[in-house]
Protein 1
Amino acid sequence: MAYVLQIDFKMLGPFGDEMAEAFSDLAKSINEEEGFMWKIWTESPETNEAGGIYIFETKETAEKYLDMHSKRLAGFGITDINVKIFAINEQLTKITHGPLN
């Protein structure tokens, strides 16, 4: 069963094209994480927030990534993060065209 990992936190930027340029190496490295399937990057310059919606193959791989990523964010000075992990109902997600492959 696949799992969603939702993370968001306060961040003063960069956003948009600058964020894409600044974090492209990080994005490439995430592709190598165990159990990682895909990520949607989120940002709100109006509220100074950023984060992402991740899909992992198992709850264990989502939790393992969260542990590592929390430490990485702390290294950037970001310690107040909001996190949720949800199981995905794959049958309903397929009906609504959710990409689980």
Note: Residues 93 and 99 are 8 Å apart (CA to CA).
Protein 2
Amino acid sequence: MHAVAPDATAASTADRLRITEIFLSLQGEARDAGWPTVFVRLTGCPLRCGYCDTTYAFHGGEWWSIDGILAEVARHGVRHVCVTGGEPLAQKRCLGLLSRLCDAGHVVSLETSGAIDIAGVDARVSRVLDVKTPASGEVARNRWENIPLLTPHDQVKFVVCSRADYEWAREVVHARALHARCDVLFSPSKSELSPTDLADWIVADRLPVKFQMQLHKLLWNDEPGR
């Protein structure tokens, strides 16, 4: 069940974020896959990737105070929290939310498109940077200046839609030595590429990346809030 926003009228405008949903599920991808996790999905995104599966988060949402968000996260009683979107960093107050979640003792990850500067993100947060492939339609939005900021605590993700996408991503991994900076994850676009094909290509090339499929989609398909 999705949370209902508390009355945020008394909260300072500087202390509010627009939220699409807050829910408890299993983390379906990246390093923390399998852990019970509270997802805080912020509203809005400046990108329009062709494979986006959360278009419902582009608009709408409700205003929440940061205190209200923390209280709702704490109510679920788990340690892991994923701040996602949309593009969460499109709301500047997201940086304060991330730090407050860390201060509260949570293991925090941030799912970001990589189109916005990540320098201000709290160092305790694992930044999961989604590098946009050509087939996404948003490859020109990649902010390559983010790459030197990555640490072993962070992760890079490519959603691969075709063989051409794979070859492009493979070149980026090698040219920018991404595997020497942090974990690199390759995922097949659910509607466009066979997972078996992607797995076979990775193995054939001995590519230093981790193949992943989205666990939550295997369990619950595309059901929102899962």
Note: The CA atoms of residues 54 and 86 lie 7 Å apart.
Protein 3
Amino acid sequence: MATDIDTAPEAEADASSRLKLTEIFLSLQGEARDAGWPTVFVRLTGCPLRCVYCDTAYAFHGGQWWDIDAILEEVARHGARHVCVTGGEPLAQKRCAVLLRRLCDAGYVVSLETSGALDISVADTRVSRIVDLKTPDSGECERNLWDNLAQLTAHDQVKFVICSRQDYEWAVQQVRERGLDRLCTVWFSPSFAQVAPRELADWILADHLPVRFQVQLHKQLWGDEPGR
């Protein structure tokens, strides 16, 4: 069951089996390799970063405590095969690793949306870890944990949200110098209302980059409506 953090004196009594959640909902995956699949999103509360383009600031605070068993029950109720654990920054809660393992054990196709500022090695390798490397214009570039790159497998994904031409050139440098395309799938995504999708697409084609272009499908359908 879910319990409100402000009215649950027992919240710390069994902390080892709880996570603080902002929402659980069914939608279409709007990004990365699983785009278009009906997906259950488990949005954890809290994030240590403050990216300028963040569209989920409502997940920074508040939330409810959920038992991990209850999360699994709610996920199952939606009847989808794909599950995405997101935030906020889900890895900021240590028990996120337990949830990821439990979801994999239950047979779901699991992805994790993470900022790349925290150690991804805690996540089950059955999970497709989508690491959002922060560009200079995100305001959080210095938070990138570059040691994470050594953890990447072909099952994982790297994403760059491009806010400007400067960001694009920086991201190109990272891809080429670090050989990111040889590690896993690399995505370039235009920051909503900062870079025109067509402009970014033209840059990628002109430079013959070994990356995949994406726009956020869910925003095309529902804008910034929470829970969609």
Note: The longest strand covers residues 18-28.
Protein 4
Amino acid sequence: MPIERFPALVAAPGVVHGFLGRVSGLDVKVDRALALERLDGFHRAAREELGLGGRAFVFGEQVHGREVAVVDEHTSAPVPGVDGVITASRAVCLGVYVADCCAVYLVDPVRRVIGLLHSGRKGSELGITAVAIERMRTEFQCDPADIIVQLSPCIRPPNYEVDFAAFVVAQCRAAGVTQVHDCGTCTGADTDAYYSYRMEKGKTGRMLALLALRS
């Protein structure tokens, strides 16, 4: 399966990333748990392709909230009750599953700290990105001006009534982040390449965002 990469993160020193879209021909018109089971082999293969197969794979429970956890290679996944994960460990691969929601990548190349967030309409309205930036500042002394933020494909108007990606960008600006990059892609407009919960009426697969520090 093709692994999408974003120019801003390709240019960022010291990180490995990827965004895994739709697996062509795979039947995922099932509930979330079964869809993820069917996708698991493809997702594992992608982590191997990125050189991350030996890392601890850590992701949140994803409850459409604003909680963000600091994690390391000893953290068990899924992390209960959180939609964001932050780490300074080079032994970890962070993950976020999305199907219209936005995966928000955060990279501080100065302090060598990364974060990955699940931010849909509710999480964006609750300000999860602002929470994550503040956690990076307080836990790791990150300067928001050093942080690079990348937004993944997500659903957008006119295929969705709210432009929650704009909320994420606004939170970044308000927190002092100047390096904000939005790919601008709408998942609802291209279901050949992406899974869309809204357009496929809840029976679909999940994309997977991956982010790790280089060894």
Note: The first helix runs from residue 7 to 10.
